[in-house]
Amino acid sequence: MNIYQEHGFKDRQDYLTSLCDEYPKDIVFSLAELLGPNEDFDGLVVSLQDYAVEDEEDPYWDEDQYLDDPRHGQATGLNRENRGRS
Question: Where in the chain are the domains?
């Protein structure tokens, strides 16, 4: 019995696929390839959790305040009037 079977999965592919239920597939497989199988139940999981935290919307972000600041509106070419328009 291998480590994946001990955790209830057929094999590594089955395990990684199960992680895709919670995290984006491209992120799961990229990190898994980068970290290698030795990190599947440790480093990979921690990295995915870190990714999820970083990916959450910042509760203190205020787009209107950001765009109203002339330093940002000028730098990005955006302002309240033209954001979201092509």
Answer: 3-55, 59-86
